[in-house]
Structure prediction request, 138 residues.
Amino acid sequence: MTLEISRIFVDAILEQSRAEYPDECCGVILGPVGADTAVRHKPMVNAAHSPTFYEFDPKDLLSLYREVDDADEEIVVIYHSHTETEAYPSRTDIAYAGEPGAHYVLVSTRKEIAPATEFRSYRIIDGIVTEEPVTILD
Prediction:
């Protein structure tokens, strides 16, 4: 599989990762059920407020699931940033990956690659991590 994502969403994720540095940023991109098409960006608050871990606030997550159900949408992309390591899922990321249909996007803003960033996408199913190509659409 390939993640096809708009440049607008990529830029928004990168901007959020820089704005929330040194904490990890997080959020989702939603789309119509069954289409695997990212159409609506929803930044989330990292309730952990941590440079090494992210978690969605339980109330925000419940609200998100209600919103998704009401709009006949699904979570297409779940993203977060790594501030000091490469854009590859950690053991914790893998353990918490509970949406088998989602693309898991990781962005790295670590200092040694600045001002560049890494933007990578994975499928994480039953603890198995598979990197997938990313096509950025203008």
